[in-house]
Amino acid sequence: MKRSLLAVLTVSLLVLVLVGGVLAQEKAPKIAYISGILDPFQVLIGEGIKDKGAELGMEVFIAEHPKAWGPEVQVPILEAVAARGDIDLIAIVPTSQEALIAPLKRIYESGVEIITVDTYLGDGDYSTPSEWSFPLTFIGTDNFQGGVEVAHRLAEMIGGKGKVFVETTNPDVSSVVERVEGFKQGISEYPDIELVGVEYCLDVQEKAQQQVAAALQANPDIVGIFGTNLYSAQGAYQAVVNAGLKEAVKIATWDATEELIQALRAGQVDLVLAQKPYEIGTLAAEWAYKYLVEGQEVPKRIVPGFFFFTAENVDDPEAQQYIYKLD
User: Fold this and answer.
1) What is the pLDDT at residue 81?
2) Cα 259 off chain centre by
3) How far is CA 113 from each of CA 10, 152, 190, rounded to the nearest angstrom?
4) Domain boundaries, the chain
5) Burial per residue of 33-58, b for 16 or more beta-carbon CB atoms within 10 angstroms, e otherwise
6) Looking at residue 326, what is its pLDDT?
7) What is the pLDDT of residues 113-152, one digit of tens each?
8) Is the pLDDT of residue 45 over 60?
9) Domain 143-274 adopts which CATH fold?
């Protein structure tokens, strides 16, 4: 009887050891998020990844947010994350369409999967074999279409005629390049509207303010301005306010920061396009899980929508979810 009990205990212990070994091998996948810069939009993408990743039982590592935009700041952070050796997938906002290809490809070839969010590599076509087609997917706003729609709405606000100006950020970043090109296409449909300039502030709000002030001096009859991201938009409306032209110049902006929403309420800007950064993050975590755990094929492009704030809807209860609020 004692021998039988001992045998049962021995077998049970062996089973526990074997099961424990299998569970140890089936550890939760670990994903990392690397943003492009420390701002509310980029932080909210990380919040979406963190929350959805935790819900799905994955480990999530949020890297230090770069203090400035650019490959020279982002690549060392990327390489430090890869050097950890415990990351299965990196979700990243590439700060250059070209300069991030080589470092990300080296990391991919070492066995780490890549998802790009908000911005993409190369021309963004990951379905056709190329030097930049190795990421699983790009998840982000349709920036070109957003630019087109901003152009139409701004044209309506200025009565379909007059001079307009674009204040943007970086010439080698896919998101803002598409916004500018979309805006140009949209505004070209209005023969009585003239685009008098496009300036790049390199994500420096003070520089955007200076550039818009100079544009207003050179073209005092500008009636519309498009700021393509939060830094360019915030600099643009400040320049217009300082020039005493709040009533004369309509301002369309991109990114629903709390500052820009307050400016909309104050009548200092007239239109705010809100992206859905938290949703971009949750989609990145969800598709990382589907690929790493379930073995599903990932669509090469995943595009959440966007929302337009105006003076008429800015205080609507259902609109509040689209403001870039940080807890």
Assistant:
1) 97
2) 18
3) 42, 39, 45
4) 28-140+276-304, 143-274
5) bbbbbebbbbbbbbbbbbebbeebeb
6) 84
7) 999 999 999 999 999 999 999 999 999 999 999 999 999 9
8) yes
9) Rossmann fold (3.40.50)
- Whether the Cβ atoms of residue 304 and residue 71 lie closer than 8 Å to each other: no
Q: Looking at the domain 28-140+276-304, which fold is it?
A: Rossmann fold (3.40.50)
How far apart are the C-alpha atoms of 261 and 271, rounded to whole Å? Answer: 9
Do residues 270 and 311 touch, judged by C-beta distance below 8 A? yes
Helix orientation angle between 230-242 and 258-265, rounded to the nearest 10 degrees: 30
Give the pair of three-digit tokens for residue 259.
């500052």
Q: 28: which DSSP letter?
A: P
For position 19, what pLDDT does the model report? 39
Residue-wise pLDDT tens digits, 308-325: 999 999 999 999 999 999
pLDDT over 60 (residue 256): yes
- Terminal Cα distance for the chain, rounded: 63
Q: In Å, how far are 35, 41, 102, 134 from 129, measured between CA atoms?
A: 26, 31, 15, 8
| Angle CA 85–297–141, to nearest 5 | 85
